[in-house]
Specification:
heterodimer, A: alpha/beta, Rossmann fold, 5-stranded parallel beta sheet, 3 helices, B: 2 domains, globular
Chain lengths: 183, 308
């Protein structure tokens, strides 16, 4: 397994700062806007984005977590089912401008499922997509992000890993990992 | 993620404690789904489920049907009354005819203990036992334990008394298996004639005095007297049963603690449970019904991933 660093800690912070400013440019005071992080990994991006927006604006933008497990299109097509995560949305999304947030945009199928899952909570005024990494030329569906941290050219045998600072990892980093060819 | 270890849900006896935990965690998520404005997910949209009921049911059948519809499965219903069963068709023939219509899963209730186990050896479809005779009623036990977990935080270490007609109750047996696997202490209480012989060998306490049972327990799961299953007289009269084993508000108030009252339904008001007890704040009977849908969704969802 090969591991290549594509976004380093410092750069990731700048990236989130830029994305936050881009959001402010479009949403100004967020009076009618909410953020939804996709479970399981998009919620960490949403959390950091919310924190960054708070640093800049001085107030917290309403942020929720959306689980898409039951709306996935690969149930029963995988060897084992995926464990569901919690959905936490303590505000109405009816008539709101929703910003969906995920870490990596790859085939677009998760986002398709997220759109489906979100509609169960109401009819938003509009929906935008924000991702840290957009893997170019890999889409299975006509889905594109409005806000992108970084575009990456990658092979299907590769995987993008967003690592957040924790007990095991000292820094926030984004890696491109080459999976071992299985013979 | 972990998978459930069985292909069919025939009884709690076959489940591992990890299976039960997995069902609970999945049910937590479905409970949240049921509180959304749109209470439906598309997970099982390519699955067809037959509800095959050879015995009467209100709650279980409605609950299963709703769970199936909330998961977007296609549903067909069958009940023995008004069917060809009356014309002499065998169980296996009836079910095979239903399955010939390309049905993936079977939810089944039958008056004979072991009927779903028998079928599981002869058919491909995944089976969920919705009650077989006086043997098991696994989803009821799961929703009972789930409701205890919801009310008291956890099941392990809690004291649960099952009170009433233990002899004819499939709910009692499944509850004993489930609660034991989850680490609770279980007591059965009822007239000696309605307690199965050797029941203590399942690892339960046995008590004949309902006051002592109530004083001991954190949760009382009160069962119905199943007159329709009783071939002979097990006690002199219903009035006498109520006098000795009926639970009312006065009795609950005389305890020095608050206990939780459960009942799998249907209640015979004024027999095993008085109205003031059934409708008191002690009672979580309607929560049980609500949780039933979420728990059954979890069971169907986890088993559907095993559909060939």
């Amino acid at each position: 397994m090969q591991k290549r660093l594509i976004v380093q800690d410092k750069l990731l912070d700048i990236m989130i700062q830029r994305l936050a400013h881009q959001l402010i440019e479009n949403h100004i005071d967020f009076s009618n806007s909410v953020i939804l992080g996709l479970q399981p990994r998009g919620i960490y991006v949403a959390e950091r984005l919310q924190q960054k927006l708070k640093d800049i604006l001085g107030f917290s933008v309403r942020t929720g977590q959306l689980d898409i497990t039951f709306h996935r299109d690969d149930f029963r097509r995988r060897n084992s089912p995926i464990m569901a995560n919690a959905t936490r949305i303590d505000f109405h999304i009816e008539g709101q401008r929703v910003i969906l947030v995920d870490d990596v945009l790859y085939t677009g199928r998760s986002v398709r499922a997220a759109l489906d899952a979100m509609i169960a909570y109401g009819r938003p005024a509009s929906v935008e997509l924000l991702v840290l990494i957009d893997r170019r030329y890999t889409r299975h569906l006509p889905i594109e992000a409005k806000y992108v941290g970084k575009y990456v050219n990658s092979l299907p045998t590769e995987r993008v890993l967003v690592e957040w600072e924790s007990e095991q990892t000292p820094e926030n980093n984004i890696w491109l990992i080459t999976k071992k060819e299985e013979n | 993620m972990q998978e459930i270890s069985v292909r069919h849900l025939l009884g709690i006896k076959d489940l591992t404690p990890a299976d039960i935990q997995l069902i609970f965690e999945t049910a937590d998520n479905f409970k949240e789904v049921l509180n959304r404005p749109i209470k439906k997910v598309p997970s099982l949209r390519d699955i067809t489920i037959a509800n095959v009921f050879f015995e009467n049911s209100t709650r279980t059948r409605l609950s299963f049907e709703l769970a199936e519809k909330r998961l977007s499965a296609d549903v067909i219903n069958f009940s023995a009354s008004g069917s060809s069963v009356k014309k002499g068709e065998t169980l296996l023939d009836t079910v095979n005819n239903i399955l010939a219509m390309k049905v993936d899963m079977l939810v089944m209730r039958h008056a004979s203990a072991g009927a779903p186990h028998f079928l599981s050896r002869h058919i491909q479809a995944n089976i969920v036992n919705a009650g077989d005779g006086t043997h098991e009623h696994p989803t009821q036990a799961l929703l009972d334990a789930f409701s205890i977990r919801e009310k008291l935080g956890e099941v392990a270490g809690k004291k649960i008394a099952i009170i009433g007609d233990i002899l004819h109750s499939r709910v009692a047996l499944s509850n004993i298996f489930a609660l034991n696997k989850l680490g609770a202490e279980v007591m059965v209480c009822g007239p000696a004639t309605l307690l199965p012989r050797h029941i203590a060998e399942l690892g339960v306490k046995v008590e004949l005095d309902v006051r002592k049972a109530l004083a001991w327990c954190d949760v009382a799961n009160v069962l119905r007297i199943q007159l329709e299953r009783q071939q002979m007289k097990y006690f002199p009269s219903l009035r006498e049963y109520t006098l000795y084993y009926g639970i009312d508000k006065k009795l609950l108030d005389s305890l020095d603690k608050e206990i939780v009252i459960m009942h799998p339904g249907p209640i015979n008001r004024g027999v095993e449970l008085s109205s003031d007890a059934a409708d008191s704040q002690h009672s979580i009977i309607l929560n049980q019904v609500e949780n039933g849908v979420a728990v059954r969704m979890a069971v169907l969802y986890l088993l559907a991933s095993k559909v060939a």
